[in-house]
Amino acid sequence: MKPRFAMYWAASCGGCEIAVLNIDERVLALDAAFDIAFWPAAMDAKYRDVEALEDGAIWVTLFNGGIRTDENEHMAHLLRRKSRLLVAFGSCANEGCIPGLANLSTRADLLRAAYDGPGSEHPGPARPQTAWDAAEGTLTLPALQPVLRTLDQVVEVDYHVPGCPPESHQIAAVLDLLIAVARGESEAPPKGAVLGAGASTVCDECPRSRDVKRIRALARIQQLPPLDANLCLLEQGLMCAGPATRGGCDARCPRVGAPCIGCYGAAPDVLDQGARLMSAIASVVDADDAEHIDRVLDGLPDPAGTFYRFGLARSLLRAHRAALAAEE
Amino acid sequence: MVQEKVGVYVCHCGSNIAGVVDVGDVARFAAEELKDRGVALARDYTFMCSVSGQDMIERDIRELGLTRVVVAACSPHLHEATFRGACARAGLNPYLSEMASIREHVAWVHRDPQAATAKAKAIVAGTVARVLRNEPLQAIEVPIDARTLVVGGGIAGIQAALEVAEAGYDVHLIEREPSLGGHMAQFDKTFPTLDCAACILTPKMAAAGAHPKIHLHTWSEVEKVEGQVGDYTVHVRRKPRYVDADVCTGCGICVEKCPVVVVDDTFEAGIGYRKAIYWPFAQAVPNLPVLDPATCTYFVGGKGGCRACEKFCPTVPNSIRFDQHEEPLTLRVGNIILATGFDLFDARRVAQYGYGRLANVFTSLELERMCSAAGPTGGKVVLRDGHTTPRSVGIVHCVGSRDRNYNRHCSAICCMQSLKTAHLIKERTGAEVYDFYIDMRSPGKEYDEFYQRVLDDGVHFIRGKVAEISDVPLDPGEEDGRLYVQVEDTLAGLRRRIPVDMVVLSAALEPRRDSAEVGRIFGIACSTRGWFIEKHAKLDPVATMTEGVFVAGCAQGPKDIPASVAQGAAAAARVLNHIRQGVLSLEPVRAGVLAERCSGCRLCNGLCPFNAIRFDAEHGVSEINAALCQGCGTCVAACPAGAIQGSGFSDAQLYAQIDGLLADLRRQPAEAT
After folding, report:
1. Which domains, and CATH codes, for chain B?
2. Which of the ends of chain A has fewer CB neighbours closer than 10 A, N or C?
């Protein structure tokens, strides 16, 4: 019998699932090598099917999405128990990603924005309930937790695959490696390894020419004149996260003139991508006086969302104090 | 991983620490509660830095096999070297020790013994966590080039150059002006002995000028410095003198024949004249005239100029060289002494004192030139009209010093200089002299005796800050043509207006206007005001945080001539120490690039204050020259890829230290918040 494969989504957009399918015909190799035990995006299955399996019965689970609800947490524990290898797949599972930015607000504020805000279809103070007695019986919904946590803040994780989403060629390489390991043709990488990514940062793969950096002003791309096609974007005044972002994507964004937004996360052994990037940018702001510094910073309308777009939930900050307090 | 054995030593520092912190409890905490975090033993002792304290550490390393040492005592600034030495003597790599500052960071800043003890424990716990991640490091060895650069040819620089040269080593002495001498050359007499400044300075200048080991580069400025202690490359800009130094005999005919006369606002402080080709002053070293292209008719006004100097020059070939240009000069040296001096405060800034507006208000420097027998008035003290002898003179202290509008510092020399001026005026004119002071500061050897002498001379001392100097008569009996000094006499408790013919302002000593730029060139720091910062205010006053760069004289802060001379000699002694060692061991706390992690983003390239970072374009990575790096950590913090690590300050060490520090706070989060 073939080893079992599972893929699951928690608090995520679904892009990681699409990215796996986007490896084209190579996905057939996956099917050839594994017995697909559980993959809600690709085939029908029930949680009880997973619960019925013996512990460790799944050889590998690719888990994408952060842990935001009780259901997410339940599934993280369940799949951990049932899987020999648990892979945090994609930015959400690894570092929280965009859903992690909600950690800047308390749960009450999030619900207020969603249910009382403009466009809400629920006039009056309506809130989702975790249990509702209806004629047919008690209906339940999973509870929203105080903050979003990354997968490894909840359960032990064996491997990490970064990216929002991971690049197709990297996914294919990771799957090839996992298949080879499953067949005993290759040695398993050390526990905790980051798979499908480079050892340096995006700049290492970026073809643009670079000089000594001195930032006199920052602006958004629509505010700048046409860009030089060959010069470092940061040196042209665009906030590019490439210097602080793990490589492996082949610098796809800066190659076509869009600044790196940091989706591959922190460089190897770096604890906090946002803090690193902030510290780096602050170091090269070449300002004449305090007002000039303010003007440069005005070019960054959303610093938290710029520096911590992907990494807030696993950063040193993690979340707003009030949200963290609710967690404790 | 080998089981590490950490020894923790808690110092009482007499009552300095033990007076506030329960040191016994801190040692007990380390021994008992940090046992499972690697602590093998903990002791407390009265003075860890004493010989017996150090012996204790050495014995424990030898007998108990300690592999790491934490000394909880004062700041590492003070005794890190002491305890590293103890470890090294016992055969432990000295960089496997750490200090926890529980004196400066705890005992000296807290009063509550309970809270202070808790904080001391947290700091010790953090330091234990850190030391476990220390790596054994090896000192970096650099050979020392025996040549020395001295920047600044005033008395401090001259003294430094002579000391090094007399020891037998080559010195390059750079001076921005056309002659050695600095400010001291402008003075008439020196306090308190009333020695003639020129008489004691001239032999020193001549000795420096003639010394075979001193290579004099006057009328020159340092543009750029590369390299590190032991091996500096210094780029110098030599300004054109328009006189061929190899041919000129210094006969002076050119100066005599030059028809252009201009105000000399450098040496003569604006009260004398010089020619367009001139000697900076009579005893100038080198004994060469210099031509000022801003006033010489050859360079201004077109038509080729008068060329009188060239026509009358008796040397063959002709010494006048109108075609001279700025020339670059490159020097290699091992050590640098900066003796760049001070600027005099511009007394015009204190508008109410009227300098520049009221003719008979003078600066102390103008008085110096006036008193000098070689000066513009031949030593006569006269009013601005050039001939009237004043019958009464006011001297104002602290002009631009000890005044929050200008400088908060005391310029250190003005009280004594004012007393000297009072004495000279009294001696030369017999005028009534009024001396307006805030506090009289005469703490040097024989200084207060000199004050007594001036008191005996009959100078009137008025304690109070002068409010205004005016030429407008106000009270009945006041007449036109005099100056009125408005002052609050704080001893008599009166407001007074004192009529005088002349006022002398004792102007402050200020940092050189370009000291920040000079500091940047040489890689050393200035205070916010602009004085160069010494390595330690008390124990290392002539060294700087940059190994191989020393400071002497007023560039470091206002001081008098004996102090400047002492610092010049002290800086020379430090340089000779380096030269005699031949090879210097440098602290191995350095930044290094992990090439495989470096993306070549070049963010760090412009950040190094010591120019230690170079970009290797071929391999697309940045590199750090370990000998140039001073371990400041700027690039480590800036590297977005985490590719630069500071040895001795790795991320692993720092995070462990933070975790250790907070470990016990986390157990009781409610109290912490």
Report:
1. 6-137 (3.40.50.960), 139-239+328-341+512-586 (3.50.50.60), 242-325 (no CATH), 344-509 (3.50.50.60)
2. N
